[in-house]
Every structure is written in C-alpha cells, then in structure tokens.
Please model this.
Amino acid sequence: MPAKLNFPEFEFRIKEEGKRTYIFDSIRKKYLVLTPEEWVRQNLIHYLVQVLGYPAGLMQLEKKVMVNGLSRRLDLAVMNTSQRIILLAECKAPHVELSADTVYQAAAYGKMLNPKIYLLSNGLRHICFSIGEKGPEFLEAIPSYLEVC
Model:
C-alpha cells in the first residue's frame, strides 16, 4: 500500500495488472499508474473536493499551457465559473522536500497564469500562498472553495 500522507483517509479504486498498480482518477475517469506523485495528487483531489468543497467539474489535471514560449504541464488547476485559475497546485512525491526554492519556482511558473492561490504538496507537508506586492504571502491552511471565490 502507498505511504501514509497528511490527509484524511479516503476510499480509492486501486487495481493490480501484472507488476503495476493503478489508481482510478475520478476527474479524468480512467486508471493511472500509481506513482508516489500520483498518490499525492489523488489524495489532494479528494481533500479539495470532499473536505474543502472545490467542484470536481472545475478541476483540470496535467493541462498543457504555454509559459514564456515554453510548453509546461500543470499538475492541478482549479477554475472558477468564469474559467479563471483560482488555485494552482504542484504535487511532489512524499520523499521530495518542499523548500523556498520550490515556492519561488512555483510562483515563477504560475506568474503568467495569475492564480489566486498556489499550493505545493508532497502529501506530508502543504505550502499554500498567494502572491502580494511584496512577494509570497503564506496562508496557515488551504482555503475552502468559498473562501477563494
């Protein structure tokens, strides 16, 4: 079984095929290889939807976008009903440390997209911030959907 994360326990559809383990992604409606990063992403999705009230229908996963002429992939973006990105999340495997460099990398990455909230998670630690006039402003907790809208 995958590592225990700093999220409530959720029910997941997991299956084995050959030597690989797969997890069902309820947003994309398909099974994906269960990597440590995917385990974090799926737990985060369930947390955002089931606990914080983010609408699953407004989530986009691994969406390709162009940033400064370069193709980038967003781990998880949550839109509002006007299709503006309100939350941009970057998921890392549990063994990957979240540092100041990670925060600045995410901020630079999302600069062109201008989300209201940035969220970094390795499943054990979550860093949530917005970008103010003086740089990152860290939040004590991940805000609910209603708080962000």
